[in-house]
Write the structure tokens for this entry.
Amino acid sequence: MARWATVGAAIAIGTTNCVVGVETFLLVQLAFNGGQLTVDTTLGAPNFPSVVIAIIVGLIINVALGLAVFKPQLRWFVSGCPADHARRRAVQRIPIHQVMTTLIAWAVAVLSYVLTANELTSKTVVGVSVAFMLAGFSSSCITYIFAESAARPLAVVALQDNPAHHVMHGVRSRMIAVWAVSSAVPMLGLLIINGGRWAGMLPPAPGPVDWATVVLALVGLAAGVRVVVLVGKAIADPLTDLRRAVERVGQGDYAAQVAVYDSSELGVLQHGFNEMVAGLDERERMRELFARHVGDTVAELALERGVGMHGTNAIVGVLFVDIVGSTTIAAQQDPRETVKLLNSFFTIVADVVDSHSGFVNKFEGDAALAVFGVPVAIDEPAAAAMAAARDLALRLDELPVRWGIGVSYGMAFAGNVGAEQRYEYTVIGDPVNECARLSELAKGAAVPVLAGDAAVAAAGDEADNWRSVGSRTLRGRPRPTEVFVPEELAAANSPPIVTGVLSGLLRPVRRTGLLGLMRLPLGLFGR
């Protein structure tokens, strides 16, 4: 890369000066011979060797000085050493240093002409000096664009750890270069030619065509094309990189970054884009972590509503599932195995609840609370909760544990509960308490899936899949609750289904261990 940068810089500087030198030579000859475009008046002119020598000397000086300025930065680049502040500034100033060497080279070319010309007059010295000055100005503008492009690999490394925060070589400077090469220099040349003829320093055009002005116009057109292409590429390349990176970000790739190699407003934009994408990546990771803790729907709701103790009453279906004997299980095996078992249990619960448009509100120790109807409203929350309970019972048979599921339905508060500085989204109300009591009873019953009469009454067609097994006054409730079990589970336990379930309901329920004591949310013990 360093070799290519060196070769590229040398070729760019040499080619630019050669082209500008040929153009300058033609213009000098045409200006002094009255605009006659013939071999004798151009190549046969008495000052022809001196002009050619001056241009060649200027070219050699320009390439030599340009490489001398470029080499220290290339050696640093090859060494792989980190860039300090001074090195970053030196790399950013490479285009300016190349402009200075170009101007020096054309000044030396004027001096070379003065030293080698045989017939020197004040008119020829002034004419050649003015022509070389305009040529040097035009060449330096083009060299500036070439040098900036050649120095991009160095700028990427130098600005990697400390990108440009302030504009150094602005886009306006490039536009000024375009104007200077394509407009200012040719127009100034036309004014100088006509002014020199008016002052008698240059001979007038003898023929119908003033070839000096024609060639100058063609030079202006060609130089304008060159510099517009170069400046357009210098501006378009960073914007193209940004456009591609924006497309990647739009597709969800937050690792997209652009190389920062520009010292203009585009470089600041490159750096700002990278910081913005890094912020988006961090925000997305935080959002993902937040969603994994509270659920996608609650995360979206929190982002939509913002900070505050938001909440409302809603008709919900509630499902509570609890493992039997979790304390004994934890005491008999490695804690990591217990965690593995709980993770498998909760994974099944989450999959089933999601498939029925529900929301797992809490994982509490060895139990889970799921709600249907909030935070996303659904048509039949009771039916969804009861269908989820039946599917969950089939899926949980895969695990080597016993469990109990309770399903309830009714009005509850759904929203943020806690303090202003720390709160969580939860559901509190009578149906939550009822399904917790039903889950307790289900753990000791022959069919470990129980639903209350309120849920069955609101379940629509789903109620056909459930069978009543009698009534029981649940702890903390003023009236008896009619209890239902799924038909398919009841059929699997026939004929002693009714007796077994009722005896299970009447049997005292024992809490087994610390996990069981800690698992229920505060709202479950409202009565």
Remarks:
- The chain has 19 helices and eight strands.
